[in-house]
Every structure is written in structure tokens, then in C-alpha cells.
Design a protein that fits this description.
Blueprint lengths: L11 E6 L14 H4 L5 E7 L2 E3 L5 E3 L7 E3 L6 E4 L7 E6 L5 E3 L2
């Protein structure tokens, strides 16, 4: 069964990982060992409203949809949302995201 849409709860963030380039800018095909040297990163697709304190106060998430984030190599929960292999996303707690990447 595949779903079209997932709305994260609490402080969870839905991220689509960016695949490593298989070809360099000059057109040379890179081996898999060279592709894994880069920091894993992805694009934020959806965010939850945030976490709550013990008193019930909402602490909003600091990320926005469309942000590019640095991810740990292992972590998150893989979620398949579409019929193809490229429709695989990962669900992270906001605290599991290493940082925000800017150009």
C-alpha cells in the first residue's frame, strides 16, 4: 500500500534525501565509494507543529518547508509515499537533524 501524503506529528520532519551525483561536472562517472564521501543532506517536505512542554505549551519547530538540512548517515524512519523507488522519504525528529545548509 502506498500513500500520497503524510502529515508529521509533534516535532517530526519529513525529508526527501538528495541522492549523490553519479557523474561529476565534467561528465566523469563516479564510483560509489566517492559518492559516499559527501555529507548526507535532504530537502524538508513537511513539518509537524512542534513539541509540547509538560505544561502543554507548544514549542514550534525551527525548520521550514523547502530548507536543505544536514542529516546523520544512519537515522530516521524510511517511509514510502509513492509507487516508484524515488518516492522514498525519511521521517526524523527535529533533534536528529544536524543542521541547516545554506548556499
Amino acid at each position: 500500500m502506498s500513500f500520497r501524503r503524510l502529515i508529521p506529528l509533534a516535532d517530526r520532519v519529513l525529508v526527501q534525501r538528495v541522492r549523490a551525483e553519479a557523474k561529476s561536472a565534467s561528465g566523469i562517472f563516479l564510483p560509489e565509494s566517492a559518492q559516499k564521501l559527501r555529507l548526507p543532506h535532504g530537502r524538508v517536505i513537511a513539518i509537524g507543529p512542534g513539541s509540547r512542554t509538560r505544561e502543554g505549551t507548544l514549542i514550534p519547530t525551527t525548520l521550514k518547508v523547502g530548507n536543505i538540512v544536514a542529516l546523520s548517515e544512519y537515522g530516521g524512519t524510511a517511509v514510502k509515499l509513492g509507487p516508484t523507488e524515488t518516492d522514498e522519504y525519511h521521517l526524523y525528529h527535529e533533534s536528529e537533524i544536524l543542521g541547516l545548509l545554506e548556499e
